[in-house]
DNA sequence: GAGTGGTCTAGACCACAAT
DNA sequence: TTGTGGTCTAGACCACTCC
């Protein structure tokens, strides 16, 4: 009967009226006192429902002014799923494999933000033995000294890092580039073919751990982002 | 002194210990009862702090088992900011303008999911009078009949829609493409130059409203996504 | 069975902003 | 001034699930 908590029922009722267009952006929602009376519950229960809606950006609450339905964002944000390559490949029902193309250890440049020494790796990721992603990666040996002894032919760098150095902060940059000669050769494309580049930087406790540039053939790959203000 | 609510101070304290690595993934956090004693407050206050952390994915809570620090996601998601072009341009301190290059009204194709008739628009967006984005857009005249009479030379289609048909659901697709001849001409690029394509579909209450394909010069544009499990 | 989180109550005081 | 949300209390009962 009563599985759904009351605060979620209240939030859901309001959400439905917003989604259906019955309550348009700018519409002033009943006050907590009114909703408390309507549902016959304590004010804190209504308050929790409204706080949840507010946290999800569906409504805007201001003291004295009351609660109004939010306007859809001009600068909208959407959750984009940043794929782990291996799980991405396997999720498509293909066999994942990888080849380590290059590995050197060298001093880090100051602008790399990765400490004193880095290991520099080039990896080709394959799906059913066909090239899928060309990856260049730097790993900070200050942050992850164990990386110097790791066998990156057995485990790709991304997987190794996930297991050994979980990050606490990440930044991704998505851009379009033409494949340079080396990348084009690795992926079997024409020089200059449009590719999606995903750059990823991660930190652990403020210290730079790794930088990676992953290049996907443009024709074969999409990032999809969904945003639904009414569905979290 | 006491501006910060107690529940946020509690959440912040815990967050800091997770971010610093003091409490690693899997670590079992003190129970609500223990935290209640530690902070000398009511249990609901602690509960709210922990619920917030849980909603943000920093911790996982299970009855009887207690609350543990969450493992970082394998398949991570990040919030990517999807720009409104005008605000993007103005945010860079440049002057925004636009030119309507084409406009026709025609029957919709079934696979477009936009009702019976659509208006098809081609718009060039400029920053300081230099081409910045080439946009192709379809607007459903079933969902937005007023669009047929709108003056899209005065207001760009995106801005008009935001004002007249706020969406409730959106999907974005990010990919890399080579500029076709028309796009290249519009943006002043060589044919086939790598570009970032942002496709956007929006719905209002389940009904398709618009589809847009916005093409950014690859060299001039990045989408940035940040993810920080410790900072929301 | 007992420890844990999930929800809810019926109050209270305070901060803020519109009037 | 006063209406509104923001926070907090000190309890309570319940639902899980591990032991």
UniProtKB/TrEMBL annotation, chains A, B:
Keywords: DNA-binding, Transcription, Transcription regulation
Residue intervals of the HTH gntR-type domain: 4-72
Gene3D superfamilies according to UniProt: Chorismate lyase-like, Winged helix-like DNA-binding domain superfamily/Winged helix DNA-binding domain
Highest taxon, organism lineage: Bacteria
SUPFAM superfamilies given in the database record: Chorismate lyase-like, Winged helix' DNA-binding domain
A family per Pfam: UTRA
GO molecular function: DNA binding; DNA-binding transcription factor activity
Protein name: UTRA domain-containing protein
């Amino acid at each position: 009967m009563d599985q759904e908590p009351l605060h979620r029922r209240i939030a859901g009722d309001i959400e439905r009226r917003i989604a259906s267009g019955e309550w348009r952006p700018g519409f002033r929602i009943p006050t907590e006192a009114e909703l408390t009376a309507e549902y016959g519950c304590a004010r804190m229960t209504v308050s929790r429902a409204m706080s949840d809606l507010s946290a999800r950006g569906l409504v805007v609450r201001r003291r004295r002014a009351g609660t109004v339905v939010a306007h859809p964002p001009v600068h909208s944000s959407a959750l984009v799923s940043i794929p782990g390559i291996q799980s991405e490949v396997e999720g498509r029902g293909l066999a994942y494999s990888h080849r380590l193309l290059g590995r050197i250890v060298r001093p880090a440049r100051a602008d790399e933000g990765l400490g004193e020494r880095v290991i520099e790796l080039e990896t080709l990721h394959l799906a059913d033995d066909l090239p899928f992603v060309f990856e260049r990666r730097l790993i900070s040996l200050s942050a992850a000294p164990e990386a110097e002894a790791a066998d990156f032919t057995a485990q790709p760098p991304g997987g190794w890092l996930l297991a050994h150095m979980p990050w606490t902060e990440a930044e991704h940059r998505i851009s379009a580039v033409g494949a340079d000669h080396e990348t084009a050769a690795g992926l079997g494309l024409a020089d200059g073919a449009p590719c999606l580049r995903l750059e990823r930087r991660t930190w652990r406790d403020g210290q730079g751990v790794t930088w990676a540039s992953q290049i996907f053939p443009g024709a074969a790959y999409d990032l999809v982002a969904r945003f639904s203000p009414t569905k979290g």
